[in-house]
Amino acid sequence: MSNYALRVPESLFEYARSVAEEEKVSMNQFFVMAIAEKVSALKTESYFRQRMARGEAAAFDTWLAVSPDTPADTGDALP
User: How many structural domains is the chain composed of?
Assistant: First the structure.
């Protein structure tokens, strides 16, 4: 486990504190979860960019082209 001194603007820190309290987690746990979410989002974006570069998006486009374009059934519409 590593330590890192983090400088956070007071307004952001107060907002983070209130969210952590609402979530019933410590500030440390809140910051770790926030960092993990951001890293996960970046890794996911990178993964999909790599797949697109390999041409796997073309396979998805092919699947879309052969899937039937049928009208919605009664009751399928959103309220």
Answer: 1
**Rounded Cα gap, residues 76 and 78, in angstroms:** 7
Tens digits of per-residue pLDDT, 4-39? Answer: 999 999 999 999 999 999 999 999 999 999 999 999
> Can you list the pairs that 52-57 forms with residues at least 24 positions away whose Cβ atoms lie under 8 Å?
none
Q: What residues contact 16, with CB distance under 8 A and at least 6 apart?
A: 8, 27, 30, 31, 34
Q: Which domain holds residue 24?
A: 10-58
Residue 75 gets the label, from left (phi > 0), alpha (psi -120 to 50) or beta, of: left
